[in-house]
Amino acid sequence: MKAKILSLALLISTSAIAEPAYYITDKLYAPVRAEQNEKGKLLHNGLESGTAVTLIEKNDQAGYAKIRTADNIEGWVRTQYLSNEAPAAVQLEQANAQIALLQEEKTKLEEQLVAIKQISASQIDTHERNAELVEQNSLLIADKELLTTDNERLRDRKDQTWFLYGGLLVALGSILSMLIPKLVTRRRNDGWR
């Protein structure tokens, strides 16, 4: 029994899915009459839903309103055809137009974002390169200071070396000045005596 009910439900659901869907159209045509009744002369066979009109007069008891179209057709239509809101089809067209505008704006913003990202990436690369150069500069300044210190130390050592050579020469000169007179005297004494 349960199996039969289940197969029947499955059969009904698949047949409902397989059948094409039909819709009731919301497109209406409002006839424009010369008088406030159904027997009045037709001035226009029917204004299509979504047509904008100007309300001139309204008779709630008769259920009619006097309107004027953009084509200057003046007449009476049933108040049931009038609404202060645009019909769904017009609202849909307006919404689709707005969506299209928003899509264009989105595309432009995405292009701008790509350009900004490229600029940002370039700026980030520049900033990183700048940081590397600043670091290299500080290392070069430290190396320069070290070389300057070494150069001054070598200059001082050179001055000290020359000073030492000068001292040695003075000492050697002193020793020689003391030895030469003694050597000269001995030779004089050796050879003359």
Topology, pairings included?
Elements: H1 2-18, E1 29-33, E2 42-48, E3 54-59, E4 64-68, E5 74-78, H2 88-192
Antiparallel strand pairs: 1-2, 3-4, 4-5
Secondary-structure element order, N to C: HEEEEEH
How many beta-strand runs? 5
The largest β sheet comes out as: 3 strands, antiparallel
Q: Give the count of structural domains.
A: 2
Residue stretches low in confidence (pLDDT < 50, at least 5 long) are none
Radius of gyration: 56 Å
Q: How much of the polypeptide forms β-strand, as a percent range?
A: 5-15%
Number of discrete helical segments: 2
Strand numbers in spatial order across the main sheet: 3-4-5
Principal-axes shape call: rod-shaped
Helix content: 55-70%
Q: Could you give the distance between the termini?
A: 165 Å
Judged by helices, strands and strand pairing, the structural class is alpha+beta
Mean pLDDT: 81
Walkthrough of the structure:
The protein has 193 residues and is of the alpha+beta class. The protein has two domains: 29-84, SH3 type barrels (Roll); 86-193. Helix content is 63%, strand content 15%. The longest helix has 105 residues, at 88-192. It starts with a helix and ends with a helix. 5% of the residues are buried.
